[in-house]
């Protein structure tokens, strides 16, 4: 019930936030499940052993997963991906509000900006900060999702589920192992968010100004379908530029996993070892060529343009 002065009580605000998080979690879970086979294939392509190629492309890869692992194999790792949506959304929601306030406070400290409000660029910065904080808070779940996703029916069974994977990695490899690949993930946020924003705004302005595809002269706003198309194009561009960092992140997540050599890129049956992000880039290009940095790009592009550019 609202108070007499029209201000909503704290309980109402909390309930509204909870409803938003639940609705966002359900929507996110549905969208991620819809593209789960593409997401799994992308990760398998990113890390597969170059001396034992099983997945040669999108169609062949999906057929191979279905043939060797069946229906369940298409959705391996999706449970962990869905489980992190609500905590990720909650942290991102709170972080965005705090980052917006902090950035606005700093901006208003500049001479002449005392009464300024958040601009689109400042909101972009706040969104990037919130994305990095939320990603960092839920990164261990993403790390074990990568390993659960890579496990196949033929590979040694080391992880039985989310909590077993988290506890096993923590016990056998130490707490720092839960953040393997964190640095390229953080760096990747910068070009992705920046290009996503700039390409979307540029496309939108061009469409309104040029009026292509039968747009009427009086049209000053884009339709929902056109805006979604602009968002998909912007997301694809951003993801493509940042994609090598995603490949390196996935490969670094496999380091230290004693059964990784049987399923991921490496020298024969030797264990995959990188000393850091730069070393991972160097060894990947040295042993597999520059094209290895874009393994899995096709299913990832289909996924991005279809549902969720941030997945």
UniProtKB/TrEMBL annotation:
Q: Which InterPro entries match?
A: MCP, MCP_dom_sf, MCP_transmembrane
**PROSITE patterns linked to this entry:** SOLCAR (PS50920)
Q: Name one GO biological process term.
A: transmembrane transport
How does this protein sit in the membrane?
Multi-pass membrane protein
A single GO CC term, please?
mitochondrial inner membrane
Keyword entries, A-Z: Membrane, Mitochondrion, Mitochondrion inner membrane, Repeat, Transmembrane, Transmembrane helix, Transport
User: Domain of life of the organism in this record?
Assistant: Eukaryota
Keyword Ligase assigned to the entry: answer is: no
Repeat (Solcar) residue spans along the chain: 15-102, 118-206, 222-311
* Predominant localisation class: mitochondrion
- Give yes or no: UniProt keyword Methyltransferase: no
Q: Where in the cell is it found?
A: Mitochondrion inner membrane
PANTHER family tied to this protein: SOLUTE CARRIER FAMILY 25
What family is it from?
Belongs to the mitochondrial carrier (TC 2.A.29) family.
Protein name (database record): Mitochondrial adenine nucleotide transporter ADNT1 isoform B
Origin organism is Glycine soja
């Amino acid at each position: 019930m609202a108070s007499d002065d029209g201000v909503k009580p704290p309980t109402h605000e909390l309930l509204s936030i909870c409803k938003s998080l639940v609705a966002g979690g359900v929507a996110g879970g549905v969208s991620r499940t819809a593209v789960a086979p593409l997401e799994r294939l992308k990760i398998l392509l990113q890390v597969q052993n170059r001396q034992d190629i099983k997945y040669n492309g999108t169609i062949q890869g999906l057929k191979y997963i279905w043939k060797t692992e069946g229906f369940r194999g298409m959705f391996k790792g999706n449970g962990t991906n869905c489980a992190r949506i609500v905590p990720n959304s909650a942290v991102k929601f709170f972080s965005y509000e705090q980052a917006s306030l902090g950035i606005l406070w700093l901006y208003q400290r500049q001479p002449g900006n005392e009464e300024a409000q958040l601009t689109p660029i400042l909101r972009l910065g706040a969104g990037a900060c919130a994305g990095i904080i939320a990603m960092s808070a839920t990164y261990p779940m993403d790390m074990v999702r990568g390993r659960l996703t890579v496990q196949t029916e033929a590979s040694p069974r080391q992880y039985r589920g989310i909590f077993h994977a988290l506890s096993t990695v923590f016990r056998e490899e130490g707490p720092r192992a839960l953040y393997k690949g964190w640095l390229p993930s953080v760096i990747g946020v910068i070009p992705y968010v920046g290009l996503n924003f700039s390409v979307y705004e540029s496309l939108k302005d061009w469409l309104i100004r040029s009026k292509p595809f039968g747009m009427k002269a009086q049209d000053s706003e884009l339709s929902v379908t056109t805006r979604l198309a602009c968002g998909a194009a912007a997301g694809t561009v951003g993801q493509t530029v940042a994609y090598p960092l995603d490949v390196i992140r996935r490969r670094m997540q496999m380091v230290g996993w004693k059964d990784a050599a049987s399923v991921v890129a490496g020298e024969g049956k030797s264990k995959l070892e990188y000393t850091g992000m730069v070393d991972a880039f160097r060894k990947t290009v040295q042993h597999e060529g520059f094209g290895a940095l874009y393994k899995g790009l096709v299913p990832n592009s289909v996924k991005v343009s279809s549902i969720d550019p941030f997945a």
